[in-house]
Design brief:
It is a single chain. The chain has 14 helices and 20 strands. It is an alpha/beta fold and about 475 residues long. The chain has one domain: 3-Layer(aba) Sandwich (Alkaline Phosphatase, subunit A), CATH 3.40.720. The strands form seven sheets. The chain has an eight-stranded mixed sheet, sandwiched between helices. The protein starts with 7 loop residues before the first helix and ends in a 15-residue tail after the last strand.
Length: about 475
C-alpha cells in the first residue's frame, strides 16, 4: 500500500485539525461581522461597474455618530442673542477662523477650525430616534419610526460596491458600530445582503485587556494550516450545489477569502493593535473609549479600510448613556459639560492626525447624529439620579428632539475647510440659508467614495432595481479637490 506521507498534498490535509471544518472556519473567521447569510443573485459591483457608477480610486470615510442627537446650540451653532428661554448658560468663543464661533466647551475645536467645515443647515422630518437615524443613514424619507430599516444604510451599500476580496483587512469596520437604538435597529442591509455588514469591534479599547477577536492568528503554523484549507469547497458537494442554485458563489468566495485573510493576516492584527501606538499618541486622543475608538479608526484607514463608523455613547455621555438630553433623562447642560471635553479631545486628535499624516485628501471625517435638540429649553422632573441628573423628581432643564435644524462637522476628504455652510435663525429653530436633507448628506459621502448615486441601483427583494439614493445631491461646497 502506498505511503500517503510521501504526497505533499496529503500531508498538508492530514495536518489540519479535524475540528476545523468549513462550517467552523466560517463561524470563527466571520464572527466579527454583524451577520452572515448567502445573498441571492447579488452582483452589485458588476452591475455598477457596467453602468459607470463606481470609480476604482480608493478613498475612505470615518463617521463619528452621536447617538441620540447632540444639541447644535451647545456645539457648532451657538445663539448668544436668543431669548432666555432658548439660550443656554454657555458662551460662544472665537476660533482660528475669522467670524466662526462655536461653544466655549469646545476649545480644542476652536484651535483647529481651519481644518474643518461646519454645515449648520441640516433638516429632515424624522422626529423619533429610529426615523431620524433611518433618514440620515439610508435616505428613508418616511417620518415614521420603524423596527428595522427598509432601505439599506450607506455603509452596507458602499461596502457591497467597493468590496475587494483580495485585501487582507475588512472594507467596512464598526468600532462600537452604529446598529441599534433601544429595541430599534437603526442601521442594516435592507434589501442588500447582510453579508456586507460591518466587521464588529466591541468593548472598550482603552482597557488593558481589550482585544479584537478572530484577527491575525499568532501561531504561524496554525495560520499556515488554515490557509491550506481554502480548497474545502470541493469536498462539500451539497453546499456547492446549494450555492450554485442561489447564484451566490461569488459572495461566498468573497467572505471565505476575507475570513481567511483576517485569521492569517499579520497586517490586520497590527492595524487593530493600539498597543503599537506610542503612549504620547494614545494620551493625546484620550485614555477613554471615545479617544481610543478614534485612534483605532485612524489606524484602520491607514491600513486600507474604507468605511468606518464609531458611535459615541455609553458612560461617557452621562446617566442615560447617549445624547438624548430630555430633562426627564438628565440635566442637559450638566450632561454637555460632563461629556464635551472628552468629545472635544477625541475628535480634534483624529482630525489633526488625518492632516499631519497626509490622509486629508483620501479620508473624509464626518461628525453627526440623527438630529439636533429643541432650541426652547424644557423643564420637567428627572426620572432618576446619576451622572448629570438630579435625584428622581428634581426639576431640571432639557432639550428635546429637533430634526428641523442641526449641524455637522466635515474634515479631510480634500474639501475646502475653515468655513461655515448654511445658517439657522437667531433662535436656532429653522434653516434660513442653504437647507440640506439626508439625501444631500448621503450623496456627498457617496461622491467622496467615488460612487455616483444617480447611476447605481440595486435590486429589492423582488428583483426590481432601486436607486441607492431616493433623492439628494452632493453638497457643492464640500466638493473635494482630488
Amino acid at each position: 500500500m502506498p505511503d500517503s506521507s510521501a504526497n505533499p498534498k496529503t500531508r498538508r490535509a492530514a495536518a489540519v485539525p479535524a475540528a476545523l471544518k468549513r462550517r467552523e472556519f466560517l463561524r470563527v473567521g466571520l464572527s466579527g461581522f454583524a451577520t452572515l447569510s448567502l445573498p441571492e443573485l447579488l452582483q452589485l459591483r458588476a452591475r455598477a461597474a457596467a453602468g459607470g457608477g463606481v470609480k476604482k480610486e480608493r478613498r475612505a470615510v470615518i463617521l463619528v455618530w452621536l447617538r441620540g442627537g447632540a444639541s447644535h446650540l451647545e456645539t457648532y451653532d451657538p445663539k448668544p442673542d436668543a431669548p432666555n428661554e432658548f439660550r443656554g448658560p454657555f458662551n460662544p468663543i472665537s476660533t482660528n477662523v475669522p467670524g466662526m464661533q462655536i461653544c466655549e466647551l469646545l476649545p480644542r475645536h476652536a484651535r483647529i477650525a481651519d481644518k474643518f467645515t461646519l454645515v449648520r443647515s441640516l433638516s429632515h422630518t424624522g422626529g423619533g430616534h429610529p426615523a431620524g437615524s433611518l433618514q440620515m443613514l439610508g435616505g428613508d424619507t418616511d417620518p415614521q419610526d420603524k423596527i428595522k430599516p427598509v432601505l439599506p444604510d450607506w455603509m452596507t451599500v458602499a461596502n457591497a460596491l467597493l468590496f475587494d476580496r483580495s485585501r487582507r483587512i475588512p472594507n467596512y469596520v464598526g468600532v462600537n458600530a452604529i446598529m441599534r437604538y433601544d429595541s430599534f435597529t437603526i442601521a442594516g442591509p435592507g434589501h442588500v445582503s447582510p453579508a456586507y455588514g460591518p466587521f464588529l469591534v466591541t468593548g472598550d479599547p482603552s482597557q488593558p485587556n481589550f482585544e479584537v477577536q478572530n484577527v491575525g492568528l499568532k501561531d504561524a503554523d496554525e495560520a499556515a494550516r488554515l490557509s491550506g484549507r481554502i480548497g474545502l469547497r470541493q469536498q462539500l458537494d451539497r453546499l456547492t450545489r446549494a450555492v450554485d442554485q442561489s447564484g451566490a458563489m461569488n459572495a461566498l468566495d468573497d467572505f471565505e477569502a476575507q475570513a481567511l485573510n483576517l485569521l492569517t493576516s499579520r497586517e490586520a492584527r497590527d492595524a487593530f493593535d493600539l498597543g503599537r501606538e506610542p503612549d504620547r499618541v494614545r494620551d493625546r486622543y484620550g485614555r477613554n473609549a471615545w479617544g481610543q475608538q478614534c485612534l483605532m479608526a485612524r489606524r484602520l484607514v491607514e491600513a486600507g479600510v474604507e468605511i468606518i463608523t464609531t458611535t459615541f455613547d455609553g458612560p461617557l455621555c452621562g446617566r442615560v448613556a447617549n445624547w438624548d438630553d430630555h430633562a426627564v433623562n438628565q440635566h442637559v447642560f450638566e450632561a454637555l459639560q460632563f461629556r464635551l471635553p472628552t468629545f472635544d479631545q477625541a475628535v480634534t486628535a483624529l482630525i489633526e492626525d488625518i492632516y499631519a499624516r497626509g490622509l486629508d485628501k483620501r479620508v473624509l471625517v464626518v461628525v453627526t447624529g440623527e438630529f439636533g435638540r429643541t432650541p426652547r429649553i424644557t423643564r420637567v422632573a428627572s426620572s432618576g439620579g446619576g451622572v448629570a441628573s438630579g435625584p428622581a423628581g428634581t426639576v431640571q432643564p432639557g432639550r428635546d428632539h429637533w430634526p428641523r435644524a442641526f449641524s455637522q462637522l466635515w474634515a479631510g476628504g480634500g474639501i475646502e475647510t475653515g468655513g461655515v455652510i448654511g445658517a439657522t435663525d437667531r433662535r436656532g429653530e429653522d434653516v434660513v440659508e442653504r437647507r440640506f436633507g439626508p439625501g444631500d448628506f448621503l450623496a456627498t459621502i457617496y461622491r467622496h467614495l467615488g460612487i455616483d448615486a444617480e447611476k447605481v441601483s440595486i435590486p429589492d427583494f423582488s428583483g426590481r432595481p432601486v436607486p441607492i439614493l431616493p433623492q439628494g445631491q452632493p453638497i457643492a461646497e464640500l466638493q473635494g479637490r482630488v
